């Protein structure tokens, strides 16, 4: 019977067109891949549409009348890291067919942006219409048959709470399902995924939408990828890394290249951005910024509001990319993240003496926030550009050192250290200082071009030196409530008696409350080039183990089911030496790391 089911999958996959190009993270055989893009690439200010890149003929339609979803204008979409997302609402009955399987086993990834005042965990995302349908909110899973209704998480369904930032309107949400598949011939029929809605159909939980007004979705969908199987943990992390890099989302867990090398984010795990090119992964990003602003001003768009030509908004502190849009060779990344520190350099004391003022003006003052740079297969001669949103620094202090009338810098510097462990201080003679190349006063950007990343791993920060401009008036100051640029969306639909509360990125349902221990030990008597992992859990759940060498290169992967009595696993490695092992809990999505010496 298994062979018969496998044959059905193969037949249904023959017509897939992604053989001509890339797939997400180079993870094979997605059943559906919706992505927002311009209808006409030559008209970036024109119309946008959801495209099904797996099956271009299988489009999103209105399930009431079968009509295709109309394109939307540029003014109706949001952009995250310069990539668009189409709005979707709980009142829009849009569906897309997933052909050939009933999705009793599946992994689905979505990139969603949410309205700030509508950022509730129980907002509806999608519903699977099949033999065993499910309904997914931001943190709850419902079976669509009433007597199977459940809001508890288990291995059969969970959310990957992947964003690290405390306030984040854009997220990667992944759902995994591993129920018993239907091997009958009926498994070949189409399954439908309804987007952003749970309008009542026969035998579903449509009443949920009526009973809970906060479930009404107000958001944007940039990308949705569905697989008809439970992915290996390494494949899942590759897909999440692709989405995180494309949309400027900071992951909670591990970053992995398409070829499964681990990217070491230690010291640069905050506000991660990446640019580069990887054709097999469908990744081509020549300019990148985080989708999370320094301050929360109710702004939903990382584009500069008056242009769609990949200009960044004035509200992004840092934008990194390639000088003059120069191209990179294939399979290259530049990954940048910061140390989580503030943006306020050392300031002069209010009662400073004349001598202290003189010394202060003659000294470099470095920003406490430092960015870690990792280049992967990048030519060191490639020139890079960085943009600093100088009004987004604390107290807007950098703006005082910019002479906008003259179009020149009065002492703002990008400071690069080729040594990722070096300190930023004037006595360090290895530091490279890049003065401001040009100013974009309208966007409030200080631009540094021609920057070279000479080593695979480096770090940089910003500094100022000299006489401030006393006539400079900042547009606003971080943390200044009177000047916050929050403008409510006049078209935002607010349900009566809806409680407006701060964004809560912590989902109680997926916290790991279980106590556990895990051990690794190598026993040469039982065979060289292998070691054993043992896990003890008070509340057992499935776990995966990813093994890397000391250079971060992927070695192997094993899974364990303590919830079914399995407590040990033997892991084989190609050679003796030290290995890094990441343990990922499959329900709570927590990651723990350890090292072992295999003799």
Any overview of this molecule?
This protein is mainly beta and 599 residues long. It folds into three domains: 2-246, Jelly Rolls (Sandwich), CATH 2.60.120; 264-479, no CATH class; 512-598, Immunoglobulins (Immunoglobulin-like, Sandwich). It contains four helices and 38 strands. Strands 1, 2, 4, 5, 6, 8, 12 and 14 form an eight-stranded antiparallel β-sheet that branches. The radius of gyration is 26 Å and the shape is globular. Residues 1-20, 147-152 and 478-513 have low confidence and may be disordered.
What is the mean predicted local confidence, pLDDT?
77
Instruction: Indicate the radius of gyration in whole angstroms.
Output: 26 Å
- CATH architecture designation of the largest domain: Sandwich
Distance between the termini: 44 Å
The structure class reads mainly beta
Strand content: 35-45%
Tell me about the largest β-sheet: 8 strands, antiparallel
């Amino acid at each position: 019977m298994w062979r018969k089911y496998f044959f059905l999958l193969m037949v249904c996959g023959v017509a897939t067109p992604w053989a001509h190009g890339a797939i997400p993270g180079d993870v094979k055989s997605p059943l559906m891949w919706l992505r927002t893009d311009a209808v006409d690439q030559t008209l970036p200010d024109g119309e946008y549409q959801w495209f099904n890149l797996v099956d271009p003929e299988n489009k999103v339609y209105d399930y009431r009348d079968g009509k295709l979803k109309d394109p939307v204008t540029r003014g109706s979409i949001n952009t995250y890291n310069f990539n668009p997302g189409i709005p979707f609402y709980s009142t829009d009955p849009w569906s897309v067919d997933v052909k050939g399987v009933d999705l009793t086993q599946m992994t689905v990834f979505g990139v969603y942006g949410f309205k700030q005042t509508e950022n509730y965990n129980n907002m509806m995302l999608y519903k699977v219409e099949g033999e065993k349908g499910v309904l997914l909110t931001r943190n709850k899973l419902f079976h669509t048959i009433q007597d199977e209704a459940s809001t508890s998480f288990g291995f059969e369904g969970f959310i990957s709470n992947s964003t690290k930032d405390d306030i984040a309107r854009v997220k990667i949400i992944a759902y995994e399902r591993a129920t018993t598949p239907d091997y009958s011939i009926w498994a070949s029929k189409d399954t439908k995924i309804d987007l952003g809605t749970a309008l009542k159909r026969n035998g579903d939980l449509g009443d949920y939408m009526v009973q809970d007004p906060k479930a009404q979705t107000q958001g944007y969908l940039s990308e949705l990828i569905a697989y008809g199987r439970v992915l290996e943990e390494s494949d899942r992390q590759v897909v999440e890394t692709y989405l995180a890099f494309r949309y400027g989302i900071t992951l909670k867990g591990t970053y992995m290249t398409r070829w499964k090398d681990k990217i070491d984010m230690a010291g640069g795990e905050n506000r991660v951005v990446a640019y580069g090119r990887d054709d097999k992964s469908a990744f081509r990003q020549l300019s990148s910024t985080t989708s999370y602003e320094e301050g929360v001003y109710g702004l939903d768009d990382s584009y500069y509001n008056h242009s769609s030509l990949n200009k960044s908004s004035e509200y992004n502190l840092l934008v990194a990319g390639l000088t003059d849009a120069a191209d990179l060779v294939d399979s290259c990344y530049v990954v940048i993240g910061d140390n989580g520190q503030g943006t306020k350099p050392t300031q002069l004391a209010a009662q400073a003496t004349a001598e202290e003022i003189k010394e202060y003006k003659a000294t470099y003052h470095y920003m406490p926030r430092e960015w870690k740079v990792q280049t992967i297969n990048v030519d060191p001669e490639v020139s890079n550009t960085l943009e600093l949103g100088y009004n987004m620094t604390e107290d807007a202090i950098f703006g005082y050192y910019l002479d906008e009338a003259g179009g020149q810098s009065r002492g703002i510097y990008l400071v690069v250290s080729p040594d990722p462990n070096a300190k930023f201080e004037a006595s360090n003679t290895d530091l490279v200082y890049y003065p401001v190349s040009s100013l974009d006063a309208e966007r409030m950007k200080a631009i540094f071009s021609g920057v070279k990343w000479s080593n695979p791993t480096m770090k940089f920060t910003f500094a100022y030196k000299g006489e401030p401009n006393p006539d400079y008036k900042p547009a606003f100051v971080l943390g200044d409530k009177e000047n916050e640029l929050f403008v409510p969306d006049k078209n935002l639909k607010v349900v009566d008696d809806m409680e407006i509360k701060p964004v809560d990125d912590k989902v109680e349902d997926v916290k790991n409350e279980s106590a556990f221990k895990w051990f690794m030990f190598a026993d040469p008597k039982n065979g060289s080039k292998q070691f054993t992992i043992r896990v003890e859990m008070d509340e057992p759940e499935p776990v995966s183990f990813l093994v890397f060498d000391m250079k971060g290169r992927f070695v192997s992967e094993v899974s364990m089911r303590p919830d079914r009595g399995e407590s040990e696993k033997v892991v084989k490695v190609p050679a003796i030496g030290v290995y890094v092992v990441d343990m990922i809990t499959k329900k709570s999505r927590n990651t723990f790391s350890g090292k072992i010496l295999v003799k």
